[in-house]
Design goal:
mainly alpha; single chain; 11% strand; 3 strands; 4 helices
Protein backbone atom coordinates (compact mmCIF):
# COMPACT_ATOMS: atom_id res chain seq x y z
CA UNK A 1 0.00 0.00 0.00
CA UNK A 2 2.81 2.41 0.89
CA UNK A 3 4.55 1.63 -2.40
CA UNK A 4 1.36 2.45 -4.33
CA UNK A 5 0.99 5.79 -2.53
CA UNK A 6 4.67 6.51 -3.18
CA UNK A 7 4.28 5.82 -6.90
CA UNK A 8 1.19 8.05 -7.11
CA UNK A 9 2.95 10.85 -5.20
CA UNK A 10 5.97 10.56 -7.49
CA UNK A 11 3.74 10.65 -10.59
CA UNK A 12 2.02 13.83 -9.37
CA UNK A 13 5.36 15.50 -8.66
CA UNK A 14 6.85 14.54 -12.02
CA UNK A 15 3.69 15.33 -14.04
CA UNK A 16 4.49 18.20 -16.46
CA UNK A 17 2.84 21.42 -15.36
CA UNK A 18 2.64 24.60 -17.39
CA UNK A 19 5.33 27.16 -16.63
CA UNK A 20 4.21 30.75 -16.83
CA UNK A 21 6.32 33.45 -18.41
CA UNK A 22 5.45 37.11 -18.61
CA UNK A 23 6.64 39.49 -21.24
CA UNK A 24 6.00 43.14 -21.95
CA UNK A 25 5.37 45.18 -25.09
CA UNK A 26 6.43 48.84 -25.28
CA UNK A 27 7.68 51.50 -27.70
CA UNK A 28 11.31 52.57 -27.69
CA UNK A 29 12.56 56.15 -28.33
CA UNK A 30 12.31 55.67 -32.11
CA UNK A 31 8.72 54.42 -31.91
CA UNK A 32 9.64 50.79 -32.58
CA UNK A 33 7.61 48.11 -30.84
CA UNK A 34 9.79 46.13 -28.44
CA UNK A 35 9.17 43.00 -26.38
CA UNK A 36 11.02 41.98 -23.25
CA UNK A 37 10.60 39.56 -20.38
CA UNK A 38 12.30 41.95 -17.94
CA UNK A 39 10.20 44.90 -16.71
CA UNK A 40 13.44 46.69 -15.83
CA UNK A 41 14.24 47.02 -19.54
CA UNK A 42 11.03 48.98 -20.10
CA UNK A 43 11.66 52.73 -19.69
CA UNK A 44 10.25 53.97 -16.38
CA UNK A 45 8.01 56.48 -18.15
CA UNK A 46 6.32 53.62 -20.05
CA UNK A 47 6.06 50.97 -17.34
CA UNK A 48 2.53 52.01 -16.42
CA UNK A 49 1.36 51.73 -20.03
CA UNK A 50 3.48 48.74 -21.12
CA UNK A 51 1.24 45.91 -22.24
CA UNK A 52 1.81 42.73 -20.22
CA UNK A 53 1.30 39.26 -21.66
CA UNK A 54 1.37 35.90 -19.93
CA UNK A 55 2.49 32.85 -21.82
CA UNK A 56 2.31 29.26 -20.77
CA UNK A 57 4.69 26.63 -21.97
CA UNK A 58 4.54 23.00 -21.00
CA UNK A 59 7.45 21.56 -19.10
CA UNK A 60 8.09 19.22 -22.05
CA UNK A 61 8.41 21.42 -25.15
CA UNK A 62 9.37 18.50 -27.39
CA UNK A 63 8.27 19.10 -30.97
CA UNK A 64 5.65 16.75 -32.27
CA UNK A 65 4.10 15.95 -35.60
CA UNK A 66 2.05 18.64 -37.32
CA UNK A 67 -1.60 18.68 -36.24
CA UNK A 68 -4.02 16.80 -38.44
CA UNK A 69 -6.40 18.72 -40.65
CA UNK A 70 -9.89 19.19 -39.17
CA UNK A 71 -12.24 16.42 -40.17
CA UNK A 72 -15.96 16.09 -40.20
CA UNK A 73 -15.69 13.02 -37.96
CA UNK A 74 -14.25 14.99 -35.00
CA UNK A 75 -17.64 14.92 -33.28
CA UNK A 76 -17.59 11.12 -33.61
CA UNK A 77 -14.10 11.02 -32.11
CA UNK A 78 -15.24 13.17 -29.18
CA UNK A 79 -18.22 10.87 -28.59
CA UNK A 80 -15.89 7.88 -28.77
CA UNK A 81 -13.54 9.51 -26.23
CA UNK A 82 -16.46 9.95 -23.83
CA UNK A 83 -17.11 6.20 -23.95
CA UNK A 84 -13.46 5.25 -23.31
CA UNK A 85 -12.17 4.11 -19.92
CA UNK A 86 -10.70 6.99 -17.85
CA UNK A 87 -7.06 6.07 -18.51
CA UNK A 88 -7.59 5.82 -22.28
CA UNK A 89 -9.63 9.05 -22.31
CA UNK A 90 -6.86 10.83 -20.38
CA UNK A 91 -4.25 9.60 -22.86
CA UNK A 92 -6.40 10.80 -25.76
CA UNK A 93 -6.93 14.17 -24.00
CA UNK A 94 -3.16 14.52 -23.60
CA UNK A 95 -2.75 13.78 -27.29
CA UNK A 96 -5.33 16.44 -28.11
CA UNK A 97 -3.51 18.94 -25.89
CA UNK A 98 -0.19 18.04 -27.53
CA UNK A 99 -1.68 18.57 -30.98
CA UNK A 100 -3.12 21.92 -29.86
CA UNK A 101 0.27 22.95 -28.44
CA UNK A 102 2.03 22.07 -31.69
CA UNK A 103 -0.55 24.05 -33.65
CA UNK A 104 -0.21 27.04 -31.30
CA UNK A 105 3.58 26.90 -31.53
CA UNK A 106 3.33 27.01 -35.32
CA UNK A 107 0.92 29.96 -35.18
CA UNK A 108 3.18 31.73 -32.70
CA UNK A 109 6.22 31.24 -34.96
CA UNK A 110 4.17 32.61 -37.87
CA UNK A 111 3.25 35.73 -35.87
CA UNK A 112 6.87 36.19 -34.78
CA UNK A 113 8.04 35.90 -38.40
CA UNK A 114 5.43 38.46 -39.44
CA UNK A 115 6.66 40.79 -36.69
CA UNK A 116 10.28 40.40 -37.86
CA UNK A 117 9.19 41.20 -41.42
CA UNK A 118 7.35 44.30 -40.18
CA UNK A 119 10.44 45.49 -38.33
CA UNK A 120 12.58 45.08 -41.44
CA UNK A 121 9.96 46.87 -43.55
CA UNK A 122 9.83 49.74 -41.06
CA UNK A 123 13.61 50.11 -41.17
CA UNK A 124 13.54 50.06 -44.99
CA UNK A 125 10.82 52.73 -45.01
CA UNK A 126 12.86 54.89 -42.62
CA UNK A 127 15.86 54.84 -44.93
CA UNK A 128 13.66 55.35 -47.99
CA UNK A 129 12.06 58.42 -46.40
CA UNK A 130 15.39 60.21 -46.39
CA UNK A 131 15.83 59.57 -50.13
CA UNK A 132 12.46 60.91 -51.28
CA UNK A 133 12.84 64.15 -53.25
CA UNK A 134 10.11 64.47 -55.85
CA UNK A 135 6.35 64.61 -55.41
CA UNK A 136 6.01 61.22 -57.16
CA UNK A 137 8.53 59.65 -54.77
CA UNK A 138 6.70 61.13 -51.78
CA UNK A 139 3.38 59.79 -53.09
CA UNK A 140 4.88 56.34 -53.61
CA UNK A 141 6.43 56.47 -50.15
CA UNK A 142 3.11 57.46 -48.56
CA UNK A 143 1.39 54.56 -50.30
CA UNK A 144 4.07 52.19 -49.01
CA UNK A 145 3.58 53.56 -45.48
CA UNK A 146 -0.19 53.09 -45.77
CA UNK A 147 0.31 49.48 -46.89
CA UNK A 148 2.73 48.98 -44.00
CA UNK A 149 0.18 50.39 -41.53
CA UNK A 150 -2.49 48.02 -42.83
CA UNK A 151 -0.12 45.07 -42.40
CA UNK A 152 0.67 46.28 -38.88
CA UNK A 153 -3.04 46.41 -38.01
CA UNK A 154 -3.48 42.90 -39.45
CA UNK A 155 -0.49 41.74 -37.38
CA UNK A 156 -1.99 43.18 -34.18
CA UNK A 157 -5.31 41.41 -34.82
CA UNK A 158 -3.59 38.12 -35.60
CA UNK A 159 -1.32 38.47 -32.57
CA UNK A 160 -4.35 39.10 -30.34
CA UNK A 161 -6.14 36.05 -31.78
CA UNK A 162 -3.12 33.84 -31.08
CA UNK A 163 -2.85 35.26 -27.56
CA UNK A 164 -6.52 34.36 -26.92
CA UNK A 165 -5.97 30.86 -28.31
CA UNK A 166 -2.97 30.45 -26.00
CA UNK A 167 -5.04 31.59 -23.02
CA UNK A 168 -7.76 29.08 -23.94
CA UNK A 169 -5.13 26.35 -24.27
CA UNK A 170 -3.67 27.27 -20.87
CA UNK A 171 -7.15 26.98 -19.35
CA UNK A 172 -7.55 23.53 -20.94
CA UNK A 173 -4.17 22.43 -19.55
CA UNK A 174 -5.07 23.68 -16.08
CA UNK A 175 -8.42 21.86 -16.27
CA UNK A 176 -6.75 18.65 -17.44
CA UNK A 177 -4.19 18.90 -14.64
CA UNK A 178 -6.89 19.42 -12.01
CA UNK A 179 -8.91 16.47 -13.38
CA UNK A 180 -5.81 14.27 -13.28
CA UNK A 181 -4.99 15.39 -9.74
CA UNK A 182 -8.54 14.73 -8.55
CA UNK A 183 -8.57 11.33 -10.29
CA UNK A 184 -5.38 10.39 -8.46
CA UNK A 185 -6.89 11.22 -5.05
Amino acid sequence: MKACIGVILLAVLVWPNPALAQFYKYLDQRGNVRFTDDINQVPESQRATAKRYAESQSADPAPGPPPPAPRSGDAEAAAKADSLPPAAAAAQGESSLDEARVSLDAQKREVEAEYAALVKEKERLATEKEKTKTRAEVTAYNQAVEAFNQRAVHYEKKSEEVRKLIEAYNARVAEANSKTASALK
